[in-house]
Amino acid sequence: MEAVILEYIRNEYLEDDDEDTELDENTPLISSGIVDSFSMVSLKRFLEKKYNITIPDEEASAEAFDTVRNIVSVVKKHQGGE
Amino acid sequence: MAYPGSLRESFEAQLNSIRDQGLYKEERFIHSPQSANIRVEFPAGAALRSVVNLCANNYLGLSSHTEVIEAAHKALEERGYGLSSVRFICGTQDIHRELEKGLSEFLDTEDTILFPSCMDANAGVFEAILGPEDVIISDRLVHASIVDGIRLCKALTDTYKHSNMQHLEQKLEEHRDKRVRMIVTDGVFSMDGDLAPLDQICDLAAKHDALVFLDDSHASGFIGKTGRGTPEHFGVKGKIDVITTTLGKALGGASGGCVSGRRELVELCRQRARPYLFSNTMAPPLVAGALKVLEILNRSTERRDRLEENTKFWRKGLTDAGFVIKQGESPIVPVMLFNAKLSQDFARNLYDEGVYVIGFFFPVVPQGQARIRTQLSADHDVSMLERALEAFKKVGDNFGILGLDKKGIVAKFGM
Predict the structure, then answer these.
(1) ipTM beyond 0.90?
(2) Is the same domain home to B243 and B201?
(3) What sign for the dihedral angle of Cα B281, B287, B290, B295?
(4) Catalytic site residue B218?
(5) Is residue A21 domain-resident?
(6) Residues B388 and B245 in one domain
């Protein structure tokens, strides 16, 4: 799941010629400015569609979405898993 | 009176943190009218220095133009200093409506509404015309005032990669279930000086039944053959649904802004836009000054032509000297230094050499993209620009960056 989300973030948020930004599951996304608050909408929509879940708006906070690791735990929670 | 010491300390700590991050903004006191050459007191208390000004938005050199000043004086005598009212109570003089009509003609739109500033225009326009059933799809580098305006609006928000038309089209398709899809872009982006591909944006808007919103603050008056802005440059005049722009940059530089575009959208702003409804009207001297500016620009393209020449001279001069600049054609010419501290040191040394510029770094520009933003004016003459170029070369040489590319500069100074 980490790899799929990382790939989405790379394609959706990094410029095509961006060679400088390093991205892994612990990279801060929102506090570092890679993902801004407006753009978070598309990430949330992607997760909901891909994993067939609904994430309430109040859970899609800047903190909950700040790293891929955090995002994975939000998704798993709504999948009824861990 | 409930301002205990602990609270004071907490605010002081915030200020200190701003200082520690190197983000503390200090004003520099200018003792002359706005011009290509100004007298500056910096730091506070220091002796005045006469410096070449390369950081004003005074693109057409109209901020201190004799005719504009005379027109403002005349209005001051005939129409007074202020109106002590919002527009719809008793704050609309005939000249306000005249200026709105003049701007509609200038921008080739159906109607125009004035705001105290373009910041206010952008803050008010989205909420006035869009609702929860709509989506705003904005370029990721739009101006902060647009970001604030979008935040105040109940429409869904989404963004596309900077000037990336494939990505924009993907977003238009994704949101086809929405009542209104509004594409939002700047005409000229203020930090990079590049132009949005408005012709392609208009094609996509037509194909996907979307509206186009354009903030042309860094273009109105000088981009395009007769200075009508980016729509003229790309041959899409009359096709933009909403244009916001400012009177605070090329168009006289005092203050004031507007929303211009489709008649009904402008009318909705007159009924609902909060900065219009709850903020004072523009003062008569400013309105008369702006009217004079439009008259000057309708009369001749001489100033925008001179600005174009100055821009070419400056871009070529910097490139030949071995600086890395953002390529383009606008009079916003960023000199890339990449490292934040270098950008500050460079600006300080330029000031010592008689050139006034500002270094920008994160979060104003992306991490590792620190730069000096230079801005040309029709008021610059060749001798001033030559002097400024010599100063840039001298400082650049002292830092050993002339002829280095991005990799070279980063290797020397870090990101």
Answers:
(1) no
(2) yes
(3) positive
(4) yes
(5) no
(6) no
